[in-house]
């Protein structure tokens, strides 16, 4: 079977997928990895990728690309999202990635990011959904909402410049998070999400990316992380409200010790939890399904699906 790889370079983390394409056109994962490198640190304020963020990301990107080649990947597709889109020196990162890792990084639009995330969720949950499928992709720099019908057609998609890293850097400056800072984040999210159209009746929401999977792992104390226990799970609005209260009240040092939470994500997870909680409120929904897959899976189908070979 032909083997391919995708690497998703996000604002907060870098994710690798190496998969075989079956004769039926499905993809079977051979290897999945994720590392938090914080490429987007400081971008919201400076509009530039920091030397530290680029160095850490390039190191992981090079290692992931080499590992994919060693596993026999015929092609490697690499996407970069919010931080690279916003940064004035994004071209510098692209050139360094080509030189150091030997890969071409494509900076994708927020609209394409949303479309690929929906494609990933639809592959897993579209046939299960009794009605329309909604997808939320919470990243470090942006959050995408996608509304699709049961046949897989996207009817609405939008990328908002709110993400766990961006909101933390913009609004959260104390430890633990005091009520005033939490309220500022909440107010900003409510204003931002007020432009969302009402979802169709009987919609099911699926959340993708690290914030959502981390919150589920926290809720169920899944440590070490186990994708098979996370993928397909459900988070309720009540659980999210309790998680927001817990995460905002705990000092950073204590959050780092919580079962199910990667220590490197502990500083931005309160903002990430607030994003998902307020998204449910804006959509008028009581729960969210959890997907351990995401953009890298959508990119795999987009770039290496049978019709592309």
UniProtKB/TrEMBL annotation:
Residues 21-300 form the Ppx/GppA phosphatase N-terminal domain. GO terms for molecular function: pyrophosphatase activity. It comes from Hyalangium minutum. Gene3D superfamilies: 3.30.420.40, Exopolyphosphatase. Domain 2 (3.30.420.150). This is Exopolyphosphatase. It comes from the Bacteria.
